[in-house]
Write a structure and sequence with these properties.
Bound molecules: adenosine-5'-diphosphate, magnesium ion
Number of strands: 11
Strand content: 15-25%
Radius of gyration: 18 Å
Helix content: 25-40%
Number of helices: 8
Length: 269
Amino acid sequence: MCDGAAGMSEAVVEVRRVSKSFDWRRPVLRDVSFSLRRGEMVALIGASGSGKSTLVRAIAGLVPIDKSATGDDLGAATGEIVLFGEPMQRRGRITRAAKRLRVRIGVVFQQFNLVPRLSVLTNVCLGLLGQMSFFHGSIGRFTAVDKRRAMQALVRVGIADQALKRGAELSGGQQQRAAIARTLVQRAELLIADEPIASLDPSAARRVMDILADLNRCDRITVLVSLHQVEYAALLPAHHRASIRRGRLRRPVKRADAGAADVDLRRRQ
Ligand SMILES: Nc1ncnc2c1ncn2[C@@H]1O[C@H](COP(=O)(O)OP(=O)(O)O)[C@@H](O)[C@H]1O
Ligand SMILES: [Mg+2]
């Protein structure tokens, strides 16, 4: 176990008055604001279609947000997303800083995180691409040092014995763990996981949530994880949960029977 995180202060994610409409009649995100400080872990909980993926993708700079917030009384408030103090999105555009910012963010999706034909080790090494020159990255040759780093990451997530298998040969839970290992190799400061446990059985889901919590607690990686299972979110303290419903953020999540956790997801403050 680790000693727990030191004090938190710096805002890693600032989402300010963010709206998003693919179709102007039905906004997917409605005036969403929240912030995440360094070392925090927050679960974003919402039913299917509530806007979780859109929000997560907007933070990662993969989906442009609307130029202004939507709503009756909001006027022309412009939304923005600031990461590590630098704008990722502003005035409805993904900024030029996006490329630089993305190197600092590890993203884990619900599925299809690995290149199926490549070995697990190579998949994890792909986390290094953002730090490599275009030439070295494009020839896809990783050094012994790179591979050692990838192996250490696989040890950390408990699947070192799977390193030489192809991505496609892993179970769903192992694939998610390899995807998390890739973000470790990347040295991501912010880990965004969009429903990483939605396709997993309960024990694999628990394992993945444990790993996320451990990386948060021991490595001070800031974690934003979207979930539709309230049971898992309930393992986090109330102030580390936010619920999203029809594109509106509400926090914290109400759950009467929270606390039956046998996993220590609590942060030491
Ligand atoms: N690229 C898109 N084009 C049009 N509508 C979209 C697009 N992406 C998401 N939506 C719609 O936005 C809503 C929220 O979707 P999403 O963010 O994927 O929710 P969640 O991840 O919570 O299931 C859904 O109604 C979905 O159909
Ligand atoms: Mg989704």
